[in-house]
Design goal:
- With 210 residues, the protein is an all-beta fold.
- It is 0% helix and 39% strand.
- It has strands spanning 2-4, 10-12, 74-76, 82-91, 95-102, 108-114, 118-119, 126-127, 134-141, 143-144, 160-161, 168-177, 180-187, 193-198, 203-209.
- The protein is built from no helices and 15 strands.
- The strands form four sheets. Strands 3-6-9-13-12-11 form a six-stranded antiparallel β-sheet, with no helix packed on it.
- The protein has a domain at 71-209: Sandwich (Immunoglobulin-like), CATH 2.60.40.
């Protein structure tokens, strides 16, 4: 076949020109999808530790949430009487834990926020909770710190417990009157809490989120 050139003289049509071979520059695997575009980014293996808790107010860190925690009242009714034998308070890292231990069983209970000041059951006298900005009352029914004859105490520990805790200031005995046993828990702020029951020995456990 002949075609006209620029000068009007016929010339032969050029044959196919071979294209130079281009080596692939991406190590990405081939894909049958027509929309596949090999990435040019390179991901380097991390040489740093995984990120910790997110920064909180004031430049601190926000501790992980306590699963199941909230600020609403928590309580159950139970038959039988529980006799208090020990009370403990401690910091568990991301929450403070209050433990009320019983020698036989955990009685029925209600745990919830109440207005300050705390008041003693029976007399209504104020219970001082220095440093507390919030109050949680732990009220247990069919419970006592004495045996059934009321002559022998089952709880011989202090009426106030405290420790190096982040949100709980202290826990104080608030009453042991007519089978109603109560403790007042002072807190530096209103935080979510979680209530659990543990066995061997029977324990009522309250965790306060940092």
């Amino acid at each position: 076949m002949l075609v006209a050139g620029c000068g009007g003289k016929p010339s032969e049509a050029p044959g196919p020109v071979p294209l130079p071979s281009i080596e692939p520059t991406s190590s990405a695997p081939p894909s049958s999808s027509p929309l596949f575009i090999p990435s040019t980014e390179t991901t380097m293996p991390s040489t740093t530790a995984p990120p910790g808790p997110a920064p909180g107010p004031g430049g601190g860190t926000t501790p992980p949430a306590l699963p199941g925690a909230g600020t609403a009242d928590v309580g159950i009714s139970r038959s039988g009487t529980g006799h208090l034998s020990a009370v403990r308070l401690g910091d568990q890292g991301s929450y403070d834990r209050l433990v009320l231990e019983f020698k036989d069983q955990v009685p029925g209970y209600t745990v919830g926020y109440r207005p300050l000041p705390a008041k003693a059951d029976g007399s209504g006298d104020p219970i001082p909770l220095p440093g507390a900005k919030a109050l949680v009352m732990v009220t247990m029914r069919s419970a006592s710190g004495y045996n059934s004859d009321l002559s022998t105490p089952t709880y011989t520990g202090p009426n106030e417990v405290s420790g190096k805790t982040a949100v709980v200031t202290q826990a104080k005995a608030a009453g042991d009157f007519e089978q109603v046993l109560s403790w007042a828990v002072g807190l530096r702020s209103k935080v979510p809490f979680k209530v659990s029951l543990l066995n061997a020995p029977p324990r009522l456990v309250i965790d306060f989120q940092h």
